[in-house]
Specification:
formyl-coa transferase, domain 3; 14% strand; 2 domains; Rossmann fold; alpha/beta; 39% helix; single chain
Length: 402
């Protein structure tokens, strides 16, 4: 079947996490995403673990591969006048330009929105900086970990008697920021299609991350309460936690949300009957004691079997899966065809995430593995700009294609 974004062409200056993930969403849906790279300053993810077979290499990073499926890569020295000119020629033939640099970087390269709009009034130009292009902190440089810190996300993640732990880059780079960016891009492209007019999109990556902590922001706004770290505990539910199961490093999660579930858990695990614990406030008071009693029993059971049994009793429970479980032993993901094997030209058959959505009349599966650096330079410059082999060789000698 046809892909839903077939015919869309993207000149992609993004790198690292959220930006690359945004354009991956478009590429997997059929957009022709041309990733502009240079060997003199590699995308950080190209040299980030894990590497295939533990062997480092610019084409061997699993992290880079997962963020760049279905894309093409060309190497182009934008700081060289001829490289800049080639970039502009590519942009004229495109629908969308993307970057996730700090404000001012694209302008220094000679590719700011005003310049690009002058050569292509219909272009959609999406910029994904940390703080956006306006405001007193617009020049801040940040990554996922920085964003979780400045939004308050990190302050609320961890154990109550320990330092803020945070969640790494998981939330900002892989959930709200690329999702919001892709939505804004598609809206602007719809406007472009209907009117022929371009659009500049200014995305501040801090702001979508705030959506992930809306209840805590509301709790402060309405009640003046500053939510802080509570580990696996919950302000309303008890007991709730991660408990040891049978086996090496095997665990089960359990969350009791009302008295009916509590009584069911007591019966299922054979816990001591204590009428005082029928009240949630008393269970919260004695949480540590209850946790010890629960773990004495859960440690005797297989996590998957026990979770299924508790779920039948309408208790929120689930095994704590590791990567082996998710990839090899998850029947739901297998049934939906979530894992896709693509044959990478250097590392061979490799596992990729499928798109999380399925269309009834269009294909959404990634169509190609992540590209080798510069893999498509000749193909793109010949196909889009009509350059011949002699011209390409001369550009390489001049340091334009590196």
């Amino acid at each position: 079947m046809k892909k839903i974004l077939d015919g869309l062409r993207v000149i992609d200056f993004t790198w690292i996490g959220a930006g690359s993930y945004t354009t991956k969403l478009l590429a997997d849906l059929g957009a022709d995403v041309i990733k502009i790279e240079t060997a003199s300053r590699l995308d950080t993810l190209r040299v980030t673990k894990p590497f295939k077979d533990g062997v480092p290499g610019v084409n061997r990073s699993g992290y880079f591969a997962d963020r760049n499926s279905s894309k093409k890569s060309i190497t182009l020295n934008i700081k060289h006048p001829q490289g800049l000119d080639l970039a502009k020629q590519l942009i004229v033939k495109a629908d969308l330009v993307t970057n996730n640099f700090t404000p001012g970087v694209m302008e220094k390269l000679g590719l700011g929105y005003d310049v690009i709009r002058a050569i292509s009034p219909r272009i959609v130009y999406a910029a994904m900086s940390m703080q956006g292009s306006t405001g007193p902190e617009r020049a801040d440089l940040g990554y996922g970990l920085t964003i979780t810190a400045v939004t308050g996300f990190q302050h609320m993640t961890g154990l109550p008697d320990r330092l803020p732990a945070g969640t790494g880059t998981n939330y900002p780079d892989h959930i709200p920021n690329p999702g919001h960016a892709a939505f804004a891009i598609l809206a602007a492209l719809r406007h472009q299609r209907r009117t022929g007019q371009g659009q500049q999109i200014d995305i501040a990556q801090v702001e979508p991350t705030l959506c992930m902590i809306a209840p805590s922001l509301m709790n402060y706004t309405v009640n003046g309460v500053v939510d802080t770290r509570c580990g696996n505990r919950h302000r309303d539910y008890a007991p709730q936690g991660v408990y040891r199961a049978n086996g090496d490093d095997r665990w089960i999660t359990i969350s009791i949300q009302n008295q009916t579930q509590w009584l069911a858990l007591v019966k299922a695990l054979g816990l001591p009957v204590n009428d005082d614990w029928d009240l949630v406030e008393n269970r919260r008071r004695d949480h540590d004691q209850i946790d010890r009693l629960i773990e004495e029993e859960t440690s005797k059971h297989d996590a998957l079997v026990l979770a299924a049994r508790l779920q039948q009793l309408s208790i929120a429970a689930g095994p704590v899966n590791d990567s082996r479980d998710v990839v090899s032993n998850d029947p739901q993901l297998a049934a939906r065809g979530h894992w896709v094997t693509l044959n990478h030209p250097e590392v061979g058959p490799s596992l990729y995430n499928n798109s999380p959505y399925r269309f009834s009349e269009a294909q959404s599966t990634p169509n190609a593995p992540a590209p080798l650096i510069g893999q498509h330079t000749d193909e793109v410059l010949e196909g889009m700009l009509g350059l011949n082999l002699d011209q390409l060789q001369e550009l390489r000698k001049s340091g334009v294609l590196n």
